[in-house]
Specification:
With about 250 residues, the chain is of the alpha/beta class. About 40% of the residues lie in helices and about 15% in strands. It binds adenosine-5'-triphosphate and magnesium ion. This is ParA family protein.
């Protein structure tokens, strides 16, 4: 199962925005998509149409004594019948702390996936802005780990930090890639400097440049994806191109 995860230590760089849009774009392209929302903030679940609720959350299928099978946790997105979501919830922060004392914590993700009775075409994972037990388990398993890089100062420092963390948990295989987000056509000098700096990074940088887009931000404010609010707006095409690029890298047919 090709698995694509969005991870950074730095917060607010676009992990959830890119993850939710790639999930929606791949579902719209006809794939059966499973999104694991491992962020207690649960923004990806909300953006993809789920209401805040008290039901089981993705972390209930994790750990030494899972309360639920993943089958019992997953819900279908109300907007896309082939997009399945294992939702996040604020109480996951406490569940994550329990994982730390577990000897198999780095295998938490494949163990949880064994409790799913069907095979998704592709798995997308959103993570919180920290290297906790969830993020480590995800980086250990995902075929492609995407680190969104915002255009501007300190961006590449954040990339170096996640690269170190990824290399520490990842024994072999897998790819860490950078995705440039918040690209602003109105700041050409910054863009040139950014492209120069990107030449020196040691991980592959994806071709897609996701623009800073009012429409993407507005869609998020309304807990929607831009494909549903303004499908032709600035950024929508680039997000679809990002989804295609990632699908190819992850080996999705
Ligand atoms: N390309 C973009 N254009 C406009 N706004 C964007 C873009 N990408 C992200 N944003 C906005 O930036 C904010 C942070 O994005 P997002 O929540 O996706 O980041 P994150 O890395 O998931 O944050 P956290 O670390 O808290 O989980 C949100 O308000 C989002 O709408
Ligand atoms: Mg997020």
């Amino acid at each position: 199962m090709p698995t694509i995860a969005f991870c950074t230590i730095k917060g607010g760089v676009g992990k959830t925005t890119l993850c939710a849009h790639v999930a929606a774009a791949l579902a719209d392209a006809g794939h059966r998509v499973l999104l694991l929302d491992l962020d207690p903030q649960a923004h990806a679940s909300l953006v993809l149409g789920l209401e805040t609720r008290d039901g089981p959350c993705v972390a209930d299928a994790f750990g030494p004594r899972p309360k639920h099978k993943l089958d019992e946790v997953v819900v279908v997105s109300p907007k896309r019948p082939n997009l399945y979501i294992a939702p996040g919830a604020p109480r996951m922060a406490a569940l994550e702390r329990e994982l730390f004392g577990w000897g198999h914590r780095l295998q938490a993700l494949p163990r949880a996936l064994k409790t799913l009775s069907w095979t998704p075409d592709v798995i997308l994972v959103d993570t919180p802005p920290s290297i906790g037990a969830f993020t480590e388990a995800v980086m250990c398993f995902a075929d492609v780990v995407v680190a969104p890089v915002p255009t501007g100062a300190f961006a590449l420092q954040g990339l170096a930090e996640i690269e170190t963390a990824w290399r520490e948990v990842r024994e072999d295989g897998g790819q860490l890639v950078a995705a440039v987000n918040l690209w602003d056509r109105r700041t050409p000098a910054t863009n040139v400097a950014m492209e120069e700096a990107l030449k020196d990074v040691t991980v592959p940088v994806l071709r897609a440049r996701i623009p800073r887009s009012e429409s993407i931000n507005q869609a998020g404010l309304g807990y929607e994806v831009v494909f549903d609010t303004s499908p032709n707006a600035s950024g929508a095409e680039e997000l679809r191109a990002l989804a295609q690029e990632l699908a190819k890298r992850a080996g999705l047919r």
